[in-house]
Amino acid sequence: TSLANKNLDNAIRIFSELKDTFWVCTTIRDMAKNNYLSSLYDSAQANLKRAYDLDVIRHDTAGISIDYAYLGALNLYKYKARIINSDTTILGEALRYCEKALSIYKRSDDYGYELARASVESNLPELYILKAQTEPKNSEKYRKMLALCRSRLQRARDMAYAEHDIEQELRLNRVEIQLLIGEGKIDEAEKLANYCYDNINIDRHSYIRTENAYNLLALVYEAKGDAANALKHLKLAELQRNMTVAATKNVQLSVMMARGQYESELMKAKGRENELRAKSYMRGFLIVMLAIIVVVMLLNGFILKRNYKRTRKLNQLVTEQNKQITEGLDYASMIQ
User: Fold this and answer.
1) 3-state DSSP helix/strand/coil percent for the chain, to nearest 5?
2) Distance in angstroms (rounded) separating the CA atoms of residues 180 and 225
3) C-alpha distance across the termini of the chain, in Å
4) Measured by CB atoms within 10 angstroms of the end CB, which terminus of the chain is less buried, N or C?
5) Phi/psi of residue 110, each to 5°?
6) What are the residue ranges of helices labelled H in 183-226?
7) How remote is the C-alpha of 117 from its chain's centroid?
8) CB 76 within 8 A of CB 101
9) Rounded to whole angstroms, how far apart are CA atoms 205 and 77?
C-alpha cells in the first residue's frame, strides 16, 4: 500500500505540473480508495475532502457527485468496522452523502456520473436496512425508501450483466443477497450466491473476484446457521486474498525492476549527454581561443607594419636633412 501511495503521489505531482486537474482529482480519489481499503479511514477522509475542494473549484459536478458517493461509502465502511463505537450518526452522514450524490447525477445522463451511480446504488440499500434497524421509529420510512431503491438496484444489476462488468455485478449481487437474507429468503440468497460463484469460475485468474464470491457464500452459510461451511468459505476467501497480495507484490517487484533499468538507462543517457556537452564546450573554447590568437597576431602585425613605416619615414627625413646640411657646408667652403 505504501508503494502504491508513493506511486500515486508521484502521479499527482506530475499531473499538477501539467496542470491537469481532472487527473489530479481522479488520482487523489484512487489514493483515498487505497486508504479505506487498508482501514486508513482518516487519510481516506482527508484525501476525499481534498478531491472535493478541487472539484468545487473546477465546477465539476460529476466529480463532486463521485466525491459524495465515495464519502458515503467511506462512512458506511467506518460504521461496519465499528471504529466509532457503533455511533449511528455516522450512518446519517453516509446516507446524507449518498443522497447528495444521487440528487446530482439524477439530473444528468452523462457517462461521467456512472462511477457515482454505481457506488451509491450498491450502498443505499444497505444503508436503508441499517437505518431501519437502528431507528425503529423511522423504520417504516426507510423500508419504503428501500422498496424504491430495489428497482434501481435491479436496473443496475441488469446493466452490469449486459456490460459483462463482473466486479460491479458482484458488488450489486452482494447487496441483493444481504436484502434477501434480511427478508428471510435464504434459499434465494443461496441460489444467487452460487450463481455468482459459477460465473466467477469462468475467469479464474482474478483472485479478487473469487475472494468476493467465497465471501458471498460464507454470508449465506452464516445466515443458514451452517458455521462449518461459513468458516470454510471464509478461509478460502482469505487464501484468495493472500494470492492477490502475492500477485500484487510480484507486479510491484516487476515495476521496481523495470524502473531500476529505466533509471540506469537514463543515467547512462545523461552521462553521454554530459560528455557530448563537455566536448562541445571544449571545442567552442578552443575555437574562441584560436580566434583570439589570430586577432592578436593580426593586431601585432598591423602595429609592427605601422611602426616600420613610421621608422622608415623618419630615417628618410633624417637622411635628407643630413644631405642638406652637408651640401650647405660644401657650398660655404667653396665660397670661402
Assistant:
1) 90, 0, 10
2) 15
3) 127
4) C
5) -60, 140
6) 186-200, 207-224
7) 22
8) no
9) 27
